[in-house]
Amino acid sequence: MAKFNKKKDGGLPPVNTAALPDIVFMLLFFFMVATVMRENTLKIANVLPVANQVEKLDKKNPISYIYIGKPSDNYASKFGTEARIQLNDDFADVSDIVPFINQERAALREELIPFLTVSLKVDKKSNMGIVGDTKQELRKANALKINYTTGTGDVSANEN
Amino acid sequence: MAKRGAPPEVNAGSMADIAFLLLIFFLVTTTIPKDSGISRKLPPIDPNETKPPIIREKNIFTVKLNGKDQLLVEDELMEVKDLRAAAFEFLDNNGDGTCSFCKGKRNPESSDNPTDKAVISLKNERETSYSTYISVQNELVAAYNELRNRRALELGPQKGFANMNFIQMQANYDDVRWNGNKTKLKEVIEQIQLEIPQKLSEVQ
Q1: How many cross-chain Cβ pairs, A to B, lie less than 8 Å apart?
Q2: Rounded alpha-carbon distances, angstroms, from residue B193 to A73, B43, B116, B167, B169
Q3: Complex ipTM, two decimals?
């Protein structure tokens, strides 16, 4: 009965991978839609404090980001360990804030300029000194809408 | 003559590799946006330095943060966790009796009314840590929100928005999928904001 001989036991048949590209493309499209391009490379430590009375930052309005924190390990030898300001991709001084805001404004459509919000992303270990200076500069630049960007959680988590 | 069959199939075996490459590129270069925070408005710099209005001592709730992150509220040491209740009591006090929705103790030593008298003043030092500052800001905003929520629960049913506190009202107003009368809701929100303005002044 050779006809009914079992097939040679050649191990498992190969798994069909024809649908693999489809699955990967699905993932790809998910990430393309759900995420945004990273705008800046952070050169500072930036662990945000948490708060629970937060409002969502409205993406409809233009947002400029100011990062404050102590330089990360690679830059510590050059820039020290005191908290510094980062604008766009580079370290900046307090005096650079006014030109930065003006430059941000110049890139906007005219009707959006009054709605420019400045998001302050400040590391939770920073001191208020540099934040106060930043706020003073923002007042000089007349950029009065600010947002202390935070994570969400109970404030008791801020203490350590 | 060569055989003319169907054209040979293109080998699509490496399609998955290409897609993986793209996927990994997007994973690395993008972030999921999750920005939220405490919004504040800075006072404009006034070129002709008008004199600030005179506010009576009892209408000012002074909060001071020193360089060691200690909190001094109305000249008494306090923990951050007690600040919300203290600020709420101050706002809700209703010293002059003009505030119709307040339920405070009507202590003559404390604020007159939250609508146009009570002011919270926050002072910090350069050495104060940012995390403590945010905690304090958060608690003060929470005190305002608590009062606004209570007012919203009172006012809402009269205007047809029952069981909705102030935070939910604002969320609904921003939500495109919410099907209710948005113009009416906006009126309620604005009325509450007018009755309980966030008067939080920061000392430079």
Answers
A1: 158
A2: 46, 18, 12, 12, 12
A3: 0.76
